[in-house]
Design brief:
141 residues, alpha+beta, 4 helices
Length: 141
């Protein structure tokens, strides 16, 4: 599991949830609609959109599609416990993503634009420094 703490647009996190849960069966018009979000109420594998106003549109398989406006948070968790992420609004449609992600979630976070190449470069550099600290007892740069 990898600790995640980064900023992200709401749209990028929305895409991440779609890529992770319903990419193969989401109707194309829902995929294109920035106000359409997927939710799942199947504890412990929940996806929840925290918003001022949402309307249930359709249920397909275990996913409920909702039309939501004024989103202030999204909670995404998997039953394995390997991925638990929260998007919290900072300003307008920009927010902060925090939590733990599995390797497959990392792929979807990158595909959706939540994580960027510079983020991965910083992460790999920090991992190398951690390895050096354990190996040599000091931070080699």
């Amino acid at each position: 599991m990898v600790h995640i703490e980064t900023t992200s647009s709401l749209e990028s996190f929305r895409k991440f949830v779609i890529f992770s849960t319903c990419k193969s069966f989401i109707p194309s018009n829902y995929h294109r609609d920035p106000d359409m979000f997927s939710e799942r109420d199947a504890r412990p594998s929940d996806i929840s959109v925290e918003t001022v106003d949402k309307i249930m549109v359709k249920k397909l398989r275990e996913i409920t599609f909702v039309n939501a406006k004024e989103i202030f948070g999204i909670i995404y968790s998997l039953k394995t416990g390997n991925t638990i992420l929260k998007w919290r609004q900072l300003k307008n449609n920009n927010g902060k993503v925090m939590g733990e992600a599995s390797p497959s979630a990392l792929t979807n976070l990158f595909e959706s634009g939540v994580l960027t190449k510079p983020w991965f470069e910083r992460y790999l550099k920090s991992q190398k420094q951690d390895e050096d600290l354990v190996k040599y007892g000091t931070n080699k740069k």
